[in-house]
TrEMBL record:
Organism: Chenggangzhangella methanolivorans
High-level lineage: Bacteria, Pseudomonadati, Pseudomonadota, Alphaproteobacteria, Hyphomicrobiales
Span of domain Sulphur oxidation protein SoxZ: 9-101
Membrane-spanning residues: none
InterPro entries: Ig-like_fold, Ig_E-set, SoxZ, SoxZ_dom
Pfam families according to UniProt: SoxZ (PF08770)
Gene3D superfamilies: Immunoglobulins
Domain of life, source organism: Bacteria
UniProt-recorded name of the protein: Thiosulfate oxidation carrier complex protein SoxZ
């Protein structure tokens, strides 16, 4: 399991824009580099990130081999109602990591 960090406000005022910042530790091997034995290392990247806010997708990103290791993503969404924010990273070799934070709208 990869280590994921999520920086999101715990509370927000209705209608306010919230900045969400995420960072996940992952080597992001492109599949183009040779290993110590001269053979090409198999590709192992995060291919997709999605954020659901109270069941609705508010941000989605497709990631490619040129993405750096330990990808950092930041985006904004409007605080509409209290509820869970579910952040999911998916990748090669069956990789999937989900983190959840609760947002309270005042």
């Amino acid at each position: 399991m990869a280590r994921a960090l999520v920086n999101a406000p715990k509370t927000a005022k209705a209608g306010e824009m919230m900045e969400i910042k995420t960072l996940i530790s992952h080597v992001m091997e492109t599949g183009f580099r040779p290993g110590m034995d001269g053979r090409i290392k198999p590709r192992d990247i995060i291919t997709e990130f999605a954020c659901e806010y109270d069941g609705e997708v508010v941000f989605r990103a497709a990631l490619h081999p040129a993405t750096s290791a330990n990808p950092y993503l930041a985006f904004e969404t409007r605080a509409t109602r209290s509820g869970p924010m579910k952040l999911t990273w998916r990748g090669d070799n069956g990789f999937e990591q989900t983190e959840t934070v609760d947002i309270t709208v005042e």
